[in-house]
Amino acid sequence: MQSINTKDLLEAGVHFGHLRKKWNPKMRPYIFMEKKGIHIIDLNKTQEKLQEAAAAMKSIASSGKKILFVATKKQAKELVSNAAKSVNMPYVTERWPGGMLTNFATIRKSIKKMQAITKMLADESTEKSITKKERLVLTRERDKMERVLGGVTQLNRIPSAIFIVDISNEHIALAESRNLNITTFAMVDTNSDPTKVDFPVPSNDDATKAVAIITDYLTQAVKEGLEERKKAKAEAEAAQKEQAAKEKPSSEPTENKPKKRTARKRKTVQTPVADTANETPVLEKKEKDSAENKATKKN
After folding, report:
1. How far is it, in rounded angstroms, from Cα 141 to Cα 240?
2. What is the C-alpha separation between 168 and 80, in angstroms, rounded?
3. Please, are residues 241 and 75 in contact by the beta-carbon 8 Å criterion?
4. Domain end: 218, 237, 256, which one?
5. Which residues of the chain fall below pLDDT 50?
6. Do residues 189 and 206 lie in contact, with contact meaning Cβ atoms separated by under 8 Å?
7. Which among 188, 209, 237 is the end of a domain?
8. Which of 34, 111, 227, 264 has its CA 20 to 30 A from that of 271?
9. C-alpha torsion sign, points 195, 197, 200, 203
10. Which residue segment(s) compose the domain that 116 sits in?
11. What is the pLDDT of residue 299?
């Protein structure tokens, strides 16, 4: 993956931090200087941390795990939701519902309820059986749930990682992630604590351009990870088919093979041949004896 250019980060305003009086002392390693009471972030450190985060997200995506994108700030909502949709990842951009991760079973029940209402409203038979007021109440309830939980409808289990824009604003999401030992990625400004995040990216989390350039770079890393997974899966299937084709001729049972008909050999019964040479003297002797007997009777 190509490294991001420092000049692009500078033009996007990633280097602008908060006022000095609002800073967090733990951000000292990532601050380059102070100018007119505003801290300037070291873009070399930002570039280094961004590459580390991108490599980790790419590895998670290539293993087939989910990454939850979280940004409820007005200037980051649309950017983060579009980025998450492009890689088919879950996202939360309206309000972080308490217990989203720590009480995930209840959240799943709410999602199933929302899906049941949607299915019921789409059914023509239900439309005839309920009144207009009941239909209006169900539609409002569905829209309200869709606004909050619409981005996590396909999330069937707790995600393996979470990406947060502004950890000070999303402190509940960060606390739940740390409680469940979920890998955390976040854009951390000079007023936040980077030690609470596994992969902090020191940057301006208030400017739209800064949020866009960081989010797009990490999303591109996720895309590459998904492509690698898809490619590896295709290669494995091809190798499996090739191996099965090689084993097929030898693995065929011999019983299924058609038997060749062989002509039966007829047994020839040999009749015993009389030995005439030995029988002739015996006949002559019998004839001689009978002639002698007849002569004696006459006398």
Report:
1. 49
2. 17
3. no
4. 237
5. 273-274, 276-277, 279, 299
6. yes
7. 237
8. 264
9. negative
10. 102-156
11. 47
